[in-house]
Amino acid sequence: MSKVELFPAPPKRWTRFFEWFCNEVYFEELQGDLEERYFRNCGRFGVRKSKAIYRKEILRMFRPSVIKKIKTQYQLNNSAMYKNYLMVAFRNLSRNKLFSSINIVGLAVSMAVGLLAITFVSEIHSYDQFHDFKSDIYRINNLRINIGRSTTDYATTSLLMGRRLQEESTNFDMIVPIFNGFNGDLIHDEKHFQIKGQYAGEDFLNLFTFPLLSGNPELALSEPFTVLITEELAIKIFNATDVVGEVLEKNEELYTITGVLKNPPLTSHIKFDAIASLKTFEAKPSPRRTRILNDWGTMWSSYVYGRLSKNSNLQRAQEELDRIAQEENAKVEHFRIEPHMESLTDIFPGDGKNNQMSIVMPKRSINQVVILALIVLFSACFNYTNLSIARSLRRAKEVGVRKVVGAKKAQLYFQFILEAILVSVLALVIAFFLFKLIRPGFIELNSYTLSTTTLELTPKIYLYFSIFALLIGFLAGTLPALLMSKIKTIHVLKGISGRSSSKGFNLRRVIVGLQFTLSVGFVILVGLAQKQYKYALNFDLGYTTDNIVNIYLDGRDPSLLSTELKKIPGVESLSTIYFLHSTGTLNSDYVSNIQGTDSVITYNNYIDYDYLDNMNHKIIAGQNFTADGPANQAIVTESLLQKLSLGNPAEAIGKEFKFYNQNRLIVGVVENFHYGTIFNTLQPYAFILDRDREMYYMNVKLNGNDILGTMDKIEKAWTQLYPEEEFYATFYSDAIERTYSGISSSIKTFGLLAFVAISISLLGLLGIAVYTTQSRIKEITIRKVLGASLNNLVLLLSKNFLIIFLISSVVAIPLAYSLFKSLVLRNIEYRISVGFWELAGEALIIIIIALLTIGSQTFRAAKSSPAVNLRDE
Amino acid sequence: MKGSHLGEFQEVVLLVILSLDDNAYGVTIKQEIAEKVNRSISRGALHTALTRLEEKGFITSEQGESHPDRGGRKKRYYTVTNKGVAALHDAKSIRDQLWNQIPRLKLYPGYDK
To answer: Do A31 and B71 touch (CB under 8 A)?
Structure first.
C-alpha cells in the first residue's frame, strides 16, 4: 500500500504558501522532495512530528535562491504598451459615456471638497513658519487659578513676568513683551485712520522676522513715542512708503514713525497695522499703564515672547519660570498663576486658550473639516469602484486575450490602475474649477475661516493637488484592478460568466448601503440643525425686536442724536441701553437681600426711562423708572423676587436689595424674559438706573413705512453730527442672527456635504441601476412575455435597492441624531423637540428621490418592447 | 573568483552525488548527508548549494520519473560533470599537499610514545 493512502496529506495551507513564494521553475522538484520526505517521516516519527518538520522545511525555503524572481521584464522598453493602455482607456471612456461622466463628475465634486481641505490644512500649518528663529521662540502662557473658583488657561502673561525675565533670566537671551492695545484712531492732518496694533519691547524686530522697508531695525522701537507702521497703512495715510520721521497723533500723544514694515504675512498670528514702543508706558505713566507694567495679576492682554538660548533647555527655562511665579504668587491673595511655555509654531492652530492676540483657529474645527472631506472622498471612490466592478464583465474578454498574449497579472493591474488615475486626473481638472467656485463660500463659512484663511494657491499646493489626484486614482482603482487582473483566462475564453461569485455583488450592495447611510445621515443632521437655528431666531424672547435698529454710540452723548432722530417721520420711538440683550453679551453680579444674608447671581443691564416701553417689556407690578424718582431705582424680574424671598410682585414694590455696595429700590417688576441666548438658562435679572452711565446702544423703533428711506435719513443725521465717525447700525434681528452664526455655519457645512454626498450616491445608484437593468434585460423581457405586469417588473428590479435603503436609514437615523446631540446641541439649553417624523421624514424624502432615480431605469426596461430585446443576437 | 571556487559544503554535496551514482536526487542527497556526514540541513539550504554548483557547471540535472509519494511530482536527478570531478581533484590535491607539508609529529602528537 502506498504511503499516500496511509497518512494525511501535508498541511495544505503551508503547501499553498510555499507555492506562492517559490520560483515556479523549482516548485515541482522541491515540493516533490518535501512531500516524499514528509511521507517517509510519517512512517518513522509519526504524523505530528512529520508535519512540524514539513512546516519548518518550508520556512527554511525562504531564501533568495528559492524565492520568485520579481523583476524580470520591466527593463524592456514598453512605451508602445503604455500607449496602448492609454488608447484603450480613452476608448473605454468614450464608449461608456454615461458611466464615464458619472465617474468623473462624482469624483470631481468630492475632489473639489478634498482640494478645499488640502489648501485649508496646508495654509493653517504654514502659520508663523516665516520667522528665522521659529524653533527657538516660546510664548509664556498663564494658567490662572482663582482659588476656590475657577481655573482658566490664558495665552497671556503679565508684563512683570517679562521684565523679570529680561533682568534675571539665564535661559532666554531675548525677551519681547507685547501689550495688545494700540487700537483706535491714528490722526494725521486731521484725518482719522482706524488701526489695530500693539505696543512692543525694543527687540521686537530682532526676535521676529518682519523685514523693514525703511528705517533702522536696531533703533526702531528703542525710544518712547516711536511707532512702526505697515506698508499698507503708510500708503493709506501718506500715499507713500518713505515716511520715516513723520508724526502721528493718537489719544493726544504724538508718535514718530521710525520704520515702515513690509506687510506682515497673512499667516502670522501677530496681526497689526502699527507697532508702538512699549517704552511709551514708562515715559508717560498713568495709573492704568503702571498697573499693566507692574501688576502680577494684570495679565489680560499682555504677552511675553522669548528666545531660548542655545545652551539652555526647556526644562531649565520652565524651572526658572516656576521660581519667578512662586515668588510673585506669594505676594498676592485669591489667585495663583502657573506659567507655561508654548512654542511659536504651536500657537496656531490652538487648543482653545483665552485672550489670544488675534483669532486662533481651534484644532478641533480643522479636524472636523478633514474628517468630513475624507468621508465625501471615500464615498466618491466607492462609486468608481462600484461601477468599475459592475462593468468588469464587459472587459473580461479583453483581459482574457491580454493574458493569452502574455500579459502578467501585475501588468493588468497596472493597466487598470492607470485607467483609474486617468479618470481622477480628468476629475481633478473639473474639481479645480469647482474649487474656485466654492472657495469664497468656504472662507465665509464662519468667523474663524473668515479672519484666518485666504486659501491662496501656491506652487506647493499645486504639487499637493497632483499627488492627491494620483492617490485618489490609486485608491479608487485598486479593487477593480485586483478583480480584473484575477480573471481566469480559461473561463473568459470558454464564455463562462465572470459574475459567478456572489461576493462581488454583495460588496457592491454594502458600498451602496454605506453611501446611502452617509446621505441620509447628513440630510437628517442638516434638517435638525436648520430647525434648531430657526427655533433660536424665532424664539419668544419676552420682548419685541421687530423693526428695531440698534445704533452703536460708543460713548457719544445720546441726547444730541435723539433730538435729531425724533424729527424723522419714520422713527416711532427711541431708547438707550448699556449693551444689547440676546446677542451673547452678559453681565452678572452677586445681589443680596438688604440684610446681606441671601446672595444670588443676578444678570443686569443699564437702561434709560424709555427702554421698557420701546421694547414692549411687560411690567407686572409697579412702574417704569421715573426722572424725578430717587437715583437708586431698579426694576427686577419675578424670578429674582423668589430667590430673595421678597414676596409677590405687588408686595415687592418699595423694598430694597443690595447691588454692589448700594441699596437698590424696587420700583417695578417685569415678566421673566430671555436676556441671553438659547445657550443660557434663565436666571434672576435686574434693570438698573444709573443716570451718569454712558450708554453704548440706541434702540430706534421704526414704524415700518419706507424702512430704507428712514435708514438713509438716520444715517444722514448721524453724518451731520459726527462727520468723522463711522455709522454702525444693525437691525436687532440681524444682530440675533449673528449671535447664532456658529449654528448657521454648521448648517452651511453640513448642507454642502449633504448635497455632495447625495449627488454622489445618486449618481452611483443611477449607474448601478443602469447596469442591473441592462444585464437583466432578457430575463425581464421573458417575464414580460410570460405575462408579468409592469408593476411586478418594476418591483422586482427595485426590491433589492429598497431593502438596502431601509437598512441604511435604520443605521443612519440614530447615528445622525447622536451626532446632532454632540455637535450642535452640546451646550444649548433651549432645544427643539425631535420626534419620529423629524428623523424619518428626511430619510423618507431621500428614499423617494433614490427610488425615482432607480425607477427611471427600471420603468424604461419594463416598458421596452420584447421584440427589440429578444432579437438582440 | 566566484566562478571556480569549491566551498566545503559544496564539496561534500559533490562527493555525495558521486557516491549515490544514478540515484542522486533531493531526498537521497539530503538523507545521505544526514547519515554519512552527520549534518542535518534543510532542503532549502541544499537547493541553494545545488543551484550554485549547477551555475558553476560542476553538476547537471535532468528530470526523472514521478511517484505518488511525491504528489505525482517529478524527481530531478543530479550528476557530476567532468569539470566537477576535476574541481574535486583540485581540492583534494591542495589538501593532500597541505597534509604532506605538516610534520607527522604535529598530526599524531602521541606517535613516538
So the answer is: yes
Interface test with A, best of B27, B43, B46 (most A CBs within 10 A): B43
C-alpha cell at A255: 508718535
Contact residues for A700 (Cβ-Cβ < 8 A; gap 6+): A548, A549, A550, A551, A565, A571, A574, A714, A729
Domain-located, residue B112: no
Q: Which three cell numbers stand for residue A166?
A: 529680561
Q: Is residue B59 part of a domain?
A: yes
pLDDT of A77: 63
Full domain range(s) for residue B97: 8-107
- Using CA coordinates, name the residue in chain A closest to B51: A65
CA gap A856, A770 in Å, rounded: 9
Distance CA A82, CA A132 (A): 47
Chain position carrying cell 520560483:
A23
Q: Which residue stretches of chain A have pLDDT < 70?
A: 1-4, 70-77, 148-149, 447, 495-506, 555, 871-873
Cα Rg, chain A, nearest whole Å: 37
Q: Are B77 and B24 in contact (CB under 8 A)?
A: yes
**pLDDT for residue A502:** 45
Which among A595, A596, A578 is positioned nearest to A586, based on CA atoms? Answer: A578
- Please tell me if residue B68 touches chain A, with a CB cutoff of 8 Å: yes
Arithmetic mean of pLDDT, B7-11: 89
Contact B45/A63, CB-based, under 8 Å? yes
Kindly list the residues from chain A whose CB atom is less than 8 angstroms away from the CB atom of residue B43: 30, 33-34, 37, 57, 60-61
Q: Can you give the pLDDT at residue A495?
A: 65
Supply the pTM of this predicted model: 0.66
ipTM score here? Answer: 0.87
CATH code: domain of residue B92:
1.10.10.10
Query: β-strands A335-343, A137-146: how paired?
Result: antiparallel
pLDDT at A748: 80
Mean pLDDT of all residues in B7-29:
91
Residue B2 falls inside a structural domain: no
The three cell numbers locating residue B30? 539530503
Give CA–CA dist A801/A805, Å, rounded. 6
Please name the residue of chain A whose CA is at the shortest distance from the CA of residue B69. A36
CB proximity under 8 Å: A 54-73 to B: 56-57, 60-66
CA atoms A418, A402, A91, A762: torsion sign: negative
| pLDDT at residue B112 tops 70 | no
Residue B50 domain flag: yes
Q: Is B42 on the interface with A (CB under 8 A)?
A: yes
CB B10 within 8 A of CB B51: no
Burial code of A825-853, b = ≥16 C-beta within 10 A, e = fewer? beebebebebeeeebeebbeebbeebbeb
